[in-house]
Amino acid sequence: MNTADIGTIVAPLQTALVGSITPVQIVAILASIIGVGMTFVLMWFGVRKLVSIFKKAVTKGKISV
What are the residue ranges of helices labelled H in the chain? Predict the structure, then answer.
């Protein structure tokens, strides 16, 4: 196979992909990825805070927020 053969094989696939995916869909996918990522980040900080509160309550006998 040479590069001309690969080009003729890939060309229909490229036109099909470009025709089926719109910029609006790409933006929607990126927005949903960012939304899910932010949820996990906030959840991570919340879990760390709860673990810290629990450790302080057990070791020092104080509960702080």
Answer: 3-20, 23-60
Q: Tell me the three state secondary structure of residue 2.
A: coil
CA distance 60 to 57: 6
Q: Which two tokens stand for residue 23?
A: 């910029």
pLDDT digits (tens, 9 = 90+) for 29-42: 999 999 999 999 99
Backbone angles phi, psi at 40, to 5 degrees: -65, -35
pTM of the model: 0.55
Q: Please check whether residue 63 is in contact with residue 53, taking contact to mean a CB–CB distance below 8 angstroms.
A: yes
Q: Which helix (H) or strand (E) is 63 found in, with range?
A: none
